[in-house]
Write a structure and sequence with these properties.
The complex is a heterodimer.
Chain A (H helix, E strand, L loop, with lengths): L6 E7 L7 E7 L3 H12 L7 E6 L11 H5 L23
Antiparallel strand pairs in A: 1-2, 1-3
Chain B lengths: L16 H12 L12 H20 L1 H5 L8 H26 L5 H10 L16 H21 L5 H29 L3 H20 L11 H6 L7 H19 L9 E3 L8 E3 L5 H11 L3 H14 L1 H23 L1
Helix pairs in contact in B: 2-4, 4-7, 6-7, 6-8, 6-10
């Protein structure tokens, strides 16, 4: 177990102004090697200007079985959207 | 409101000319600045202050409206108001997070709000005595906020710009729900229409003050424009707001409480715009400096929420610690 090389998740910022976006994962012994491997693997064609590596075990994901109870309540709340409100056309854009 | 974030900002820098010129060149090329990039201390400080005050404004801004959730006149209005106030809480979080990328902690910012060191928008120091105020706040206060925030989506600091894009998208319903409330009141009884007029009378001038001091009085604005933190001056945005809002008041059949308000076809480079009367800057500075009707109440409410919530934060941390200890023990066995 302790001899396994840890897994890292790689996030790349395509250019300044945009968020880092998850692009994949890799194995590396520590963060220095993980950053080097990420650079060599994921930015060979100018994909980005900044890299984050995060230990995969530091990521906690929501349970897919709970997707319905987590996310469906957001769908039926139509009053969170601007189109729910009646604004006459002559008032113009609001 | 967020132009008020520059009040007292210290844009002074001690970096070399060469460093500053290089930084300015990046800004001039419309490059975004990201958290790990080298930046002048003044740029960082200005942003910490502005984003922090913006975040505080979202959180304190929940109070005048939250006050009306239980008394909203229908389920439709209650659901909308609840959703709006919930959004403001989220917007505070996005903004605090953006400020944290600059090296300031959430605890520091909270402490500065509660001690009165950090400011928030003067608009939230006015009371909301009637239901019409909820309509007027959505229409004017959120309207002014949107006018300010749209250019901030192009702010040179990446995390702030991204937070603003999210906020603007979510906020698009806030103004409409407010205006819809006012349409209902203005189509209602004479008393309801009067309530709407009275509300406009109280909120018009404070809403115009949300754009911050006159350009001539706003000494830090120039540096912020140069760094492209701001894209328009306070007076430019204020004028845009007035020009957009006056016809909306006319549609409601309400009178804007400014006897000097007059259409001027020459304004805005011949496109036309409204001339308006002078703002009461004494009132503005009095409210900014803590002398508004609600300043004391607002901070008291925030302090109470912070103090009353202390046991929850402590219990959550203690529980997390207990679970971590248990995991370590199990791993050892």
């Amino acid at each position: 177990m302790s001899n396994e090389t840890p897994l890292w998740e790689v996030f790349i910022r395509p250019r300044n102004g945009l968020s880092h976006k998850h692009c994949g994962s890799l194995h590396a012994a520590d963060e220095v090697l993980a950053l080097q491997a990420a650079r060599d693997t994921y930015t060979r064609r100018g994909e980005g200007v900044s890299i984050w590596v995060v230990p995969s075990k530091a990521i906690f994901a929501s349970d897919p079985d709970q997707a319905a109870e987590n996310f469906e309540p957001g769908v039926d709340k139509v009053y969170r959207h601007p189109t729910f409100y009646d604004i006459p056309e002559e008032v113009g854009h609001m | 409101m967020y132009s008020q974030g520059l009040i007292g900002a210290d844009g002074k820098t001690e970096e070399t000319e060469e460093f500053l010129a290089k930084f300015q060149a990046r800004i001039d090329r419309e490059e975004k600045i990201e958290p790990n990039d080298a930046m002048p201390e003044g740029y960082r400080k200005t942003l910490v202050r502005q984003i922090g005050q913006h975040a505080h404004s979202e959180i304190v801004g929940m109070l005048p409206e939250g006050n009306w959730i239980t008394r909203a006149p229908s389920l439709r209005r209650k659901a909308a108001l609840l959703a709006k106030v919930q959004d403001e809480g989220g917007h505070g979080l996005y903004l605090y997070s953006a400020a944290e990328t600059l090296g300031v902690t959430r605890e520091q910012m909270t402490e500065e709000l509660l001690s009165g060191k950090a400011k928030y928008s003067s608009i939230f120091n006015y009371p909301t005595p009637t239901w019409a105020d909820i309509g007027t706040i959505g229409w004017l206060v959120d309207g002014a906020a949107i006018m300010n925030q749209i250019p901030l989506c192009r702010c040179s600091y990446g995390p702030y710009a991204r937070a603003m894009i999210r906020v603007c998208k979510e906020e698009s319903f806030h103004q409409r729900q407010g205006y819809e409330i006012l349409i209902s009141l203005c189509n209602g009884t004479e008393e309801q229409k009067q309530m709407a007029q009275d509300s406009l009378n109280r909120w018009w001038w404070p809403s115009l003050m949300m754009f911050g001091p006159h350009d001539a009085e706003s000494s830090h604005s120039e540096q912020s424009m140069k760094w492209k933190i701001k894209r328009f001056s306070n007076d430019e945005l204020r004028q845009k707001f007035i020009d957009a809002t006056v016809p909306q008041a006319e549609y409601l059949g309400l009178t804007v409480p400014d006897p000097e308000l007059k259409w001027n076809p020459e304004k805005n480079g011949g496109k036309g715009g409204y001339d308006h009367g002078p703002l009461d800057w004494d009132e503005f500075w009095r409210v900014v400096k803590g002398g508004g009707r609600m300043n004391v109440d607002r901070i008291k409410a925030r302090k109470k929420a912070w103090d009353d919530g202390a046991w929850v934060r402590e219990a959550a941390l203690a529980h997390a610690e207990k679970r971590a200890t248990r995991r370590t023990q199990q791993a050892a066995e």
